[in-house]
Amino acid sequence: MNNITSILILIFLAITFLQSGYDKLFNWKDNVSWLQGHFAKTPLKNQVPLALANILILELISGILSVVGCIELLVNNGRVFGFYGAVFSCVTLLMLLFGQRLAKDYDGARTIVIYFIPAILAVYWLN
């Protein structure tokens, strides 16, 4: 169990992004509706469905790579998939942070930073 910290963070990232992706996929209309109001006064106001689709794809990639990375660490101490899962997680979170800042939702942006800290630590440890 030399990699327990990395495994726990990858599980955290997998749960975070797979649950979020699941919610976006199965509650698409509600998410689009809410986000159109959230971004009504931003340059993204007419791009909400496309932006949401991009985030959904990145979240699913992040979550799946994190799961595979966790398995890889357990099976053969490999770090490739976990590293890319952490990198994709960071990119996804940066995109979400950009959107929250654009919408002037500073509390939402602050919350994303809480998720970014373990994701960036995972990039560091798995590199």
Automatic annotation (TrEMBL):
Lineage, opening ranks: Bacteria, Pseudomonadati, Bacteroidota, Flavobacteriia, Flavobacteriales
Keywords: Membrane, Transmembrane, Transmembrane helix
Subcellular location(s) of the protein: Membrane
Membrane topology of this protein: Multi-pass membrane protein
Gene Ontology cellular component list: membrane
Bilayer-crossing regions: 51-74, 81-102, 108-126
Coiled-coil region: none
Domain of life: Bacteria
Protein name: DoxX protein
